[in-house]
Amino acid sequence: MSDVFEKCRSWKDYRIAKATGLYPYYRSIEESFGATEVQIEGRRIIMVGSNNYLGLSADPRVKEAAIKAVERFGTTCSGSRLLNGTLALHEELEQRLAKFLNREAAVVISTGFQTNLALSSILGRHDIVFADRQNHASLVDGIRLSFATERKFRHNDLDHLEQLLQQAAEKEPKAGKIIITDGVFSMEGDLCNLPRIVELAKKYNARVMTDDAHSMGVLGEKGRGTSEYFGLEAETDLVMGTFSKSFASLGGVLAGPQEVINYMRHKSRSVIFSASMTPASIAAATKALEIIEAEPQRRARLLDIAEKMHNGFRAMGFDTGVSVTPVVPVHIGDQVKCFRFWKALHEAGVFANPVVPPAVEAGHALIRTSYMATHTDEQLDRVLDIFEQIGKKLDIIPQTRPSSYTPVQIARPGTFVLSNKASEKWAAASAGLNGGNGFSLDQLSRMSSREVAGKLFDAVESLTWRAANLQPEDLRKLGQMPMKLWEKRANLPGMLLEKGANLLIRNGHEDRS
User: Fold this and answer.
1) Which residue among 28, 41, 173, 375 is buried most deeply as judged by most CB within 10 Å?
2) For the segment 362-408, what is each residue's pLDDT rounded down to a tens digit?
3) pLDDT on residue 210
């Protein structure tokens, strides 16, 4: 008889990563020093893995506002917005956000994820959603919860979007249509092609919604996000934002036509069946909004930092892909090497985020860095130095800097850039090609039977555990190995996982390096 828990017991990825010391997640932060540095396991390290873009989570004014709200209203509202959970603070923030975003109305919801789930309330059986394949998981789930038909278009491929729109116009002419896309894509930092999306929406009578979680407070002259950046606010029907990034709080907002927002207030399960934002969260977001409006120099500083880091990495030979924003991904490619790079960064005093499939395409693992307006030049230079040292050690960048590189253009007000040109290596990885390095474990799992894939994972796990728990016999055999391997004995756990997996999946093509 099948056991619903069996999948949990047989899941090996966690044990493999733990055994090799390459498990990067759920790192406990013990203390924060102005947000740009944190303490982990008693060590103070530079934080370049946060979405606190304007550095407002450590601003004394924001913290004071949160404290005063707790003193006035307590720690929680103890109920949903529909019933007892609406404070004057909620209504004030909604009114100010509607004005800030040039919309008729706005509704604030407890988390950013729940904010996108609220979309399901307006998507009915006779509606079609056209969604970018790289949209955030919260958008994916919000659409899935609805009764609408979903049609996904290839990432930023607007010709493909038009094909889908044309098919819908011919086969389902009476269907309601909406195009939903991230404004800034959270892993790779590029922008949606909003001008073309708006053009197609007008042509095929579709609505448009942007998820501006990573652009609200960051892009545009006033920080209103992607639609302001492109000068298309009037043509974008719905806009979503989160408070856990530039707004230094927790929660989210949907803004748009009054009738649509009012409908969501009364029909969205994530609004009416969830406790409302806490007084502290609301007050912090409100104060952050005041600062965003009053201090545009923070955005300017943030974009200067983004340009410095993009070009600093590229000057060393790293590839930062297509990003034009303070989301600065560093392409690694191989998943195990990405984890090894993360570990070396962590040990050297830099907190960054390893991103592996399914968050990115197979063969496209990367180190995601993101920056705050409050980072100092000294901190940034230290990060660049550490990345260069580790990049050379792991043979990700050349030992000698390239003689030239293509500089990055940042999405500053008035530039209207969408993305930067990525290298062939990055493009190949995005397409799922591994450039002759053998199949990835993910690809092999899809190509093979369950039995073969299972045996492969068992073999890799066995290699890993032996590497992590060397016995006397293992040490004797290692003493007989070539000097090149012996010199790398400190890296054996990661090496055996990486090399052992490649040996198994290259169909017998031995790698003796």
Assistant:
1) 375
2) 778 899 999 999 999 999 999 999 999 999 999 999 999 999 999 99
3) 98
- The full DSSP string for 124-179 is -TTEEEEEETT--HHHHHHHHTSSSEEEEE-TT-HHHHHHHHHHHHHH-TTSEEEE
Structure tokens given for 95: 């009114």
Q: Does 257 have pLDDT greater than 80?
A: yes
**pLDDT tens per residue, range 179-232:** 999 999 999 899 999 999 999 999 999 999 999 999 999 999 999 999 999 999
Q: Check 136, 155, 245, 375 and give the catalytic one.
A: 245
- Residue whose token pair is 């390893």: 354
Active-site entry in 214, 287, 308, 346: 214
| Residue 366 contacts residue 331 (beta carbons within 8 Å) | yes
Tell me if residue 186 is catalytic. yes
How far apart CA 166 and CA 390 sit, in angstroms, is 49
Q: Residues for the chain: how many in total?
A: 513
Top mean pLDDT of 17-21, 66-70, 154-158 is at 66-70
Extract the tokens encoding 296: 């545009």
In this prediction, residues 135-155 reach a mean pLDDT of: 96
Residue 472 tokens read as 């006397």
Angstrom CA distances, 113 to 116, 129, 159, 250, stand at: 6, 18, 29, 10
Site of tokens 């016995």: 471
The secondary element (H helix, E strand) that includes residue 390 is helix 377-393
214: annotated active-site residue: yes
